[in-house]
Amino acid sequence: MTTVSLTVNGQSVTADVDSRTLLVQFLRDTLRLTGTHVGCDTSQCGACVVHLNGQAVKACTVLAVQADASVVTTIEGIAQGGELHPMQAAFREHHGLQCGYCTPGMIMSAIDIVNRKGNALDEQTIRAELEGNLCRCTGYHNIVKAVAAGAQAMAQAPLQQAAE
Amino acid sequence: MTATGIGAPVRRKEDQRFVTGQGRYVDDFNRPGQTYAYFLRSPHAHAKIRSIDTGPATIMPGVVAVFTGDDLASDKIGGLICGWMIHSKDGSPMKAGPHPALAQGKVRYVGDHVAVVIAESLAQAKDAAEAIVVDYEVLPAVVDTAEAAKASVQVHDVSPDNTVFNWHLGNREETEAAFARARHVTKIDLVNNRLVPNPIEPRAALGEYDPGTDAYTLYTTSQNPHVARLVLSAFIGVAPEHKLRVIAPDVGGGFGSKIFIYAEETVCVWAAKKVKRPVKWTSDRTEAFLADAHGRDHVTHAEMATDENGKIIGLRVHTVANLGAYLSTFSSSVPTYLYAPLLSGQYDIPAIYCEVDAVYTNTAPVDAYRGAGRPEATFVVERLVEKTARELGQDPAEFRRRNYITQFPHQTPVIMTYDTGDYAASLDKALELADYRNFQQRKQDSARRGKLRGIGFSSYIEACGIAPSQAVGSLGAGVGLWESAEVRVNPTGSVEVLTGSHSHGQGHETTFAQLVSDRLGIPIDQISIVHGDTDKVQFGMGTYGSRSGAVGMSAIAKALDKVIAKGKKVAAHVLEASEGDIEFKDGKFGVAGTDRALGFGEVALQAYIAHKFSGQDLEPGLKEGAFYDPTNFTFPAGVHICEVEIDPDTGVTRIDRWTAVDDFGVIINPMIVEGQVHGGIAQGVGQALLEGAVYDQSGQLVTASFNDYCMPRAIDLPSFQVGMTVTPCPSNPLGIKGCGEAGAIAAPPAVINAITDALGHEDVAMPATPQAVWRAAQKARMPMAAE
Fold it and tell me: Residue A119 belongs to a domain with what CATH number?
């Protein structure tokens, strides 16, 4: 067992973990933050995307011990004061989800895309940047619309970006 | 139309929890004292099990128990079942081999269940599974669909030639006569590639046993929890029906693969009592590839006869359908009654004859996957129609139009009575939206850039809303296919609707609430939709076959009618008027011709306080239930047009335009309906361009991960242009036809018709990967040299 200490959604957590524990298992099983999902075993589907020190990572590809002393943000941590993050609101408004299983990873990836590529995203950029996230329900049509709208809305809500 | 009523694009109520990570899927549930199950699976496609030594595993750290098929047998746990009886042409029943939840003496596909380890942690269970010693006598495997019936390998003793049934539908003599007088016959050979459904949430099961009440609870990723309970109790014998609660909470997509009752949930429920602790199993993706029921896998030869006027006069089809190593829950219905009755397509074809040989192979079981039989039928019809038009030198759109059914109701030669439709209207709208008139200009533009542009049509029809129980019973179904609903009005006027339908992405919490809001005139936020728990909802048949709108909502509508009728009785007492004078309009019960009226909430309260009527006159309370059994299938239909641009140097196909015009009857929420169309098209494009489950000759699944099986990604797809036409369905009270599978049914032939149009070469198999398209392009350029 190894002791890890990190900040998750603004809260300090310390726990003893089996060294082989993945970050996603730590979040789901130890912290019971079940919004981060597991959809594959080859780091392809992106359902487990969280932010590690402000950057999107697949939490199935990071050991919990690697996240020691890091800052992790999950889907549960991006709404502020009961207000949805603009990207969450955009997915809802544009019907960018159906079963909801890929959605947390999609939203966390989408915020990361905006952080890297800016607020004015064209369709081809969004489609290319979503390479690491699989959705089986939507055909991506409305996800692409949601990401574009969410990116624009994030420009109007600088406080929410700062909160990360 | 109100802002939240029928026809409004209401934003989904369920999304608040999904976008904030508060959805509750099976793997999110954890019970006190929970243990973890891990299944040891066969590494061989076909082998006798000489012995299993679980001893070394039982002493591994954290191991609670290890069970094999012998333990299930000694507890008299039955095998998994196939619930649809098909009879062969000679009248003999299908040959159903045994399907134990844990292997007994033999394994029949890679991934077959050999033993289960239950441990304190999943890691410990996996470690211990490696310590189980299985002595296999490896046997040769049969894998190939077309060759299975001729193979020397025998998958099941009951079927010496690996044949499950030789079935047929239609009229052979009339069809032969039509071909005898045909001016032209078009022939085609098709493979409908095997697919893996791959909902992004893997399957999971959590079984729990309470010795105090002798009752079981199963949390499971199911599209139909009541059917799961019925099968687990009545057929498999795990627990009595009244002592088994099945909960299917939020479910992350199904696409058919979560209809079926599998080995894993059977074992988890049973084992929970054995180890006296909750038992949880969550599939990893590799297990999902190996052991979820796959879809499609047909090999077909088909011929279409036309007369001197370019009218289709006959269709004959021979299909070999691979059902895998065991008959999954509804597998036998897919290549039979969900397939051949759709072979008339949208066309007036006087004579049709179809033969289907279903075979066993040493591969994963094959069952319903989005569309289930109807995509396979549509692929046959629409590839043949396109090829016929080309061979006759006719415009593919106009050839279709000439052969469309225009008079309704229309009796096809293959069971179905189409109730209504306007196929030409959908075609006209699709041609307009696709800018068909300027296609040749775009083709020339592409040619100038060294690219090949093609256009492909798909004029599909499907049979949904399954189905009248008597009808499916006469065709071999073991169940009825009605739906139930219960509307509970609370004293405060809020409403809970309990439905036997199950939502795993379809948005029922929104659309069903829209219907209630529309009918009762109450705000949508005062309505809750309850589903997926057999302790709350009495019974239901679940969600598949695009049936939740046409059947599930019709049941709700019927229950709402009863609520309104009861409300009128209550209002009559309170308003001291005759019941016949009470009208219900805009959410108010009023006395006709007066301004005296009560709001819905006031009537609800009066129904419960019961001060204004005696128990002799009227029962207190306001709660009504209904079962709705449809009187016909529904027949959604439409036209999809795909336009591709191919790089002949690389074989890469890019979908440039997609136009879909669908007639789903009355639409409750157009935003959600369009979303269903998008998702269906993506799965159909996946089949046509990207996806294919491949077994090698030894029966190893070569494509058992997302690295090897190509799922559609955002970059593979265009944005879709979606339009609608509406002919209301006459057979249900809401006029709904259903929309869930249309895209997956329509898309594959549209893509392949576009590619073959671009190449000028008909022999393009699915998935049309760059390599396959490049090879076809070479053949088209140099037909002699390419081979």
Answer: 1.10.150.120
